[in-house]
Each structure stands twice: as C-alpha cells, then as structure tokens.
Amino acid sequence: MVSLIFEAQTAVVYDVIGLGFGPANLAAAGALLEQPRETCPISVNKSLFIERHHEFRWHPGMLLPGTRMQISFLKDLATLRSPQSPITFVAYLHSQNRLVEFINRNCMTPTRKEYSDYLAHVARYVQGQGIKVAYGENVIAIEEGGEGTVLVHSIVLTTGETIIRRAKNLIISPGGSPRVPRCIQSISPHPRIIHSSAYLSSVEPMLDTMKTITRPLKIAVVGAGQSAVEVLLDLQSRLTSMGNSTGQAHDLHLIIRGGSLKSSDGGPFSNQVYNPEFVDVMYDLPSDSRRRVMADYEGTNYGVVNPITLDSLFNVMYDQRVDSDIARRKKNALAATDAHITIVTYSNLASAEISTHPSQTSTETETDTHTFSVLLQNTLTQVFSEATYDAIVCATGYERNSWLNLLKSSGLGKHFGLCATSDNTRLSVERDFRATINGKNGAFKAATNGINGHSRASVTGINGEKIHTQHTSTETKDSDTIYISRSHRLLPLQTASHESIPKIYLQGCAEETHGITETLLSVVGIRAGEVVEDLCSNY
Ligand SMILES: Cc1cc2nc3c(=O)[nH]c(=O)nc-3n(C[C@H](O)[C@H](O)[C@H](O)COP(=O)(O)OP(=O)(O)OC[C@H]3O[C@@H](n4cnc5c(N)ncnc54)[C@H](O)[C@@H]3O)c2cc1C
Ligand SMILES: NC(=O)c1ccc[n+]([C@@H]2O[C@H](COP(=O)([O-])OP(=O)(O)OC[C@H]3O[C@@H](n4cnc5c(N)ncnc54)[C@H](OP(=O)(O)O)[C@@H]3O)[C@@H](O)[C@H]2O)c1
Fold first, then answer.
1. Which residue among 18, 226, 448, 536 sits deepest, i.e. has the most Cβ atoms within 10 Å of its Cβ?
2. What integer pLDDT is reported at residue 330 of this predicted model?
3. Is the pLDDT of residue 475 over 50?
4. H/E/C letters for each residue in 327-387?
5. 318 alpha carbon to ligand 1 midpoint, in Å?
6. Which Pfam families does its entry note (predicted)?
C-alpha cells in the first residue's frame, strides 16, 4: 500500500520550496546563500528544492559527446550579478585546478559535458552550505495551505509514497516538457518513437528492437532546430557502426517544415537582446510589441542550428555525395555503407499510424514488427505524400505550461485570475494588472487571440500554441490573464486577502512578458538575484 507522509502536519513550515532543481533554481539557491544571514528573513535550512532526477542532472538525454554550450561561460549562474560569488564558472575551474588550461583553450563556450559538471559542482556546494534538496521526487500538485502557505504534494519515485510539505513561498522553475506533434501522441508511447529530450537513454533500446530486421532501416528525425541536427549526426554515426547484412546503407530522413536548415543568428548586435537590461525593455513594451520583438529574434534561438553544427552536417552530406559518385563510377552500388541522410523539406508530419507486419523470427515481439506509415503534407502545395519509417525521433522542442496545469488544478489558481477550464491563458505585466484593477483596460480589446489579421510571424505562447503577431496595438483582457511582476512574482487579484495567499514565483516560463532570455541561461544569475531580493524584501 502506498503511504502518505504528511510533513505539513508536523511543525515544519518551509520558508521557501523550489519546484525543480535545474539551473534556474540552482541559481536561486546560490543567490539565497549570498543574502546577509543576520537580516535575511529566509532561513537556509528552511529552504528546500524538490527535483525529480535522482541526482543533479542537466538535460541528460542530450549530453552528446563533443556538444558545446551556446553561451559564454561568463553568463554562468552568478558572474553577471556577483563576479566574486563562489558559484561562478571561474571559481569552479579554479577548484578543479583547470583554470589555466581552460584559458589556453581560447574558447568562450565550454562543452556541455564540462558545463553539466560545473552545475553539479554548484549543486553539491549549495547543499554543503545547508540548502536541502529532495531528489527523486516528482511534484504532482499544489494546494492552498491556509495562513499564506502552500502545500506541495510530491511522489517519491522509488517507493510511490506521497509527501506533502508546507511552505510560505514557492519558486516554480520546471523548465520545458517535451513537445510531441499531436499525430505522434496518438501512437505513443512506443519504444521506436522517442523525443530528443530522452534521446541518450532511449536510442540504444530503440535500435535493439530493430536488430532482427535484415533490410536497411529507415528512420525519421522531425525538427529543424539544434536538437534535431545533433540527434541526426549522432544517429548517423550509430547506424553506420551498426552496419547491415545486405551491405546497403540505412536511411535517415530529416523532416523539416521549411525549405532549408537555418543558422542561428549569433551576431553581436542580435545578441544584445540577451543583455540583462533588455528584460526591462521587453517588460515595458505593450504585449503586441513584445510579440513582434520575440518573432524578430526567434532566429537567434528557436528552430535554428549553430553554424558549427551545420557545417558538420553539410560535410557529412557532402561526403556521402562523394561516396555515391565513386560508387556510380565503379558501377558498385554497395560501396557506400555509411547511413545516408536526406533532408525532406517543406514537409509537415500530418498523420502517423502503426502498421504491423508478420514476424520474421521467433524472438520478435509484436512491437518489433511495427513500422510507421506517415502522411507528409507539403507546406507550399498542401499536397500529401506517404512514407514508411521504422522509427521516429521527435526533435520538436519543448512546451512550458506544466506550471499552469499545476496552478489550474489547485484551488490557488483562482486567486491569480486563472479559470480551471481555460486553455487560453495569457501572461501579462504589472502595468496591465494595475490598469485592469482600475478598470482602464476596457479600451484594449481583442488582440491576444490573434483575430485581427495582418500577422507577419508567430511565436509560441505559454499554452504551446502559435500566437500570430499583430501590427495593431490592441489587447485582450479576459479572466484567463495571469499577471507577473518584473521580479517574477505572480500577482494575486485584489479580491483576495493578500496575507492568505502564498507568494509564488515563476522562472523560465515567462517569455511572453520577460522576453527571449527567459528559457535560457543568459540572465539566470541576475534573475535569481531579483527573485531572492523580492522574496526577502516582501516578507
Ligand atoms: C539540450 C539542451 C541544451 C541547452 N543548451 C543551452 C545553452 O547552451 N545555453 C542556454 O542559454 N540555454 C540552453 N538550453 C536551454 C535550457 O532551457 C537552459 O539551459 C536551462 O536548462 C534552463 O534552466 P531551468 O532550470 O529553467 O530548466 P531545466 O534545466 O529544464 O530544469 C528544470 C528542472 O525541474 C525539474 N522538474 C520539472 N518539473 C518537475 C516536477 N513536477 N517535480 C520535480 N522536478 C521537476 C526537471 O527535472 C529539471 O531538472 C539548452 C536546452 C537543451 C534542451
Ligand atoms: N548544444 C546545445 O547547446 C543545445 C542542444 C540542443 C538544444 N539546445 C537549446 O534547446 C532549446 C530547444 O531547441 P530544440 O532544437 O530542442 O527545439 P526548437 O529550437 O524549439 O526546435 C523545434 C523544431 O521542431 C519543429 N517542430 C515543432 N513541432 C513540429 C511539428 N508538429 N511538425 C514538424 N516540425 C515541428 C519546429 O519547426 P518550425 O521551425 O517549423 O516551427 C522546430 O524546427 C533551444 O534553446 C536550443 O538552443 C541547445
């Protein structure tokens, strides 16, 4: 029988609980430790972070060999806020006796392996300073705890027990959840359908299910972003090593909706949108202008690929052309056995079905005999074509709405203007909050639903859907707008008694109000400082 540990009934009331212990909350823990202890109202040993990983991990599913950070090491967890902090990347290098050799490397971007080790080092450091972390627990619900507290329900993943804890403040920093195209969701989970977020733990089990197939394999990777190309290159090398008894090459198709892969814009001028002060600029803009800016700079981060990774892919594809020209000249079709990459352009995955084939050997399970019949719709002509794949890897990005679902299913949501049944929630800024309270928002009508036409681009909203940008400067206010302060605190409606509502902070999910840096590391240290300062000053 599953037991329930009700810490909330005990005397423990945490000053703050953090949901998730990724870079955002790790930076918050570091910022908390920097507060002067004599005056800080938040006690370190009453601070707890709950993390579903069993130890500190940073995107372990994509920790591919040789991959590099997309950001300077100086934009670490603390340097921009507090260069003398013990949790900077330089302090980490120094502690590992690698500072000089890192300098000799002459490169601003560490490998993801090294950065991940840095983050794990900081996690150990903050825990050593008294910050508590409950690893291996998944937060499944929050609810009102009375007297300004929140109850946080989590499941211990190894035992299935539920723990309920009480806190005065909550910092929700859950990162993204895998976004999977709807047509793939209907045939998932399946061992031959994986999302890039779980690539490293799933790819070998996936390939194992295809070991008995004697013909060349055909695998689709969907997406045109950094993850898609990293996965494509890794799969190409795995399939090439796997070989094939027929001597024919395995096939890898990269399915993209556009006409070509695009380089990320990492130029120094575009990069200024990631400056800390740009968060103020974004926050102060009207919401339709914010959306236009987001759309303008989408190409610095989303659906784009680092030029170095693109060059690697281009070279692999060029090499396969050289191989096939040599094979043709020698009239030897079997010469090139490297897995063969094709980029399938202007193609949207419209539907996918499982087809079952008779088993070839007695050891095959039912899923081993599956293939996937997909319909690809040409995004220019709308014409459909059919294709069959043995496996599908979705490198289709992330959604950032898990916090919203938590809040919606709790009694707390209503205090922030959230309607439990709505699937159209907007985040908005404090200025609009004040205008709404003062009844001045009536003049702003009807643009957040994107119905006025003239859209020139689209960005992803907190519900994971595409929001079309507008040229008009109008704004909707309905019951499904949540307001967030510049310091990342959700603003309770004036109807509620403020003392009875716990303070809830949100990190990493507020692109709509705080701009494109929100989901990234660029200002993670500064943002953590803002959250902790607000937490301490509004106590
Ligand atoms: C492969 C990859 C590489 C990236 N590289 C870069 C880069 O080089 N530069 C950059 O700026 N950005 C990069 N990013 C963007 C990335 O979002 C940030 O690097 C960073 O991870 C954001 O930190 P976070 O703490 O907000 O989210 P996350 O790192 O996602 O951390 C959130 C944590 O919360 C935990 N969690 C979530 N929900 C629950 C729950 N209900 N209960 C318990 N625990 C929960 C998760 O397990 C996770 O550990 C990368 C993203 C990916 C996917
Ligand atoms: N080494 C690294 O540092 C590293 C590695 C991986 C990721 N990252 C970071 O992680 C973040 C996410 O990157 P990501 O590549 O995972 O995601 P992403 O940039 O959001 O790209 C997702 C891709 O999936 C496509 N897509 C989404 N839904 C689709 C559908 N239904 N059908 C077809 N295509 C669909 C999108 O197409 P459209 O473009 O047509 O919308 C887009 O090309 C970024 O910040 C990135 O920089 C960093």
1. 18
2. 80
3. no
4. HHHCCCCCCCCCCEEEEECCEEEEEEEEEECCCCCCCCCCHHHEEEEEEEEECCCCCEEEE
5. 34
6. Lys_Orn_oxgnase
Greater model confidence, 329 or 484: 484
Give me the long-range contacts of 39-43 (CB less than 8 A, separation at least 24): 40/536, 41/15, 41/536, 41/539, 42/15, 42/16, 42/169, 42/532, 42/535, 42/536, 42/539, 43/15
Which has the higher per-residue pLDDT, 477 or 133? Answer: 133
Q: Read off the pLDDT of residues 179-234 as tens digits, 9 standing for 90 and up.
A: 999 999 999 999 999 999 999 999 999 999 998 898 999 999 999 999 999 999 99
Pocket test for ligand 2, best of 113, 378, 396 (most atoms within 8 A of CB): 396
- Measured CA to CA, the distance from residue 470 to residue 453 in angstroms comes to 7
Q: Is the peptide bond before 36 cis (omega within 30 degrees of 0)?
A: no
Residue 459 pLDDT class (50, 70, 90 cuts): very low
Atom of ligand 2 nearest to the CA of 519: 45
pTM of this structure: 0.91
**Ligand 1 pocket check for 519: Cβ under 6 Å:** yes
Structure tokens at 34: 């920097």
Question: What count of other Cβ atoms lies within 10 Å of the Cβ of residue 79?
Answer: 20
> Separation of 339 CA from ligand 1 center, angstroms?
31
How many whole angstroms from 173 Cα to the centroid of ligand 1? Answer: 9
Is 347's C-beta closer than 6 angstroms to any atom of ligand 2? no
What is the token pair recorded at 285?
Answer: 């803009």
CA 270 to ligand 1 center in whole angstroms: 23
Give the three-class secondary structure for 183.
Answer: helix
Q: What is the pLDDT of residue 331?
A: 73
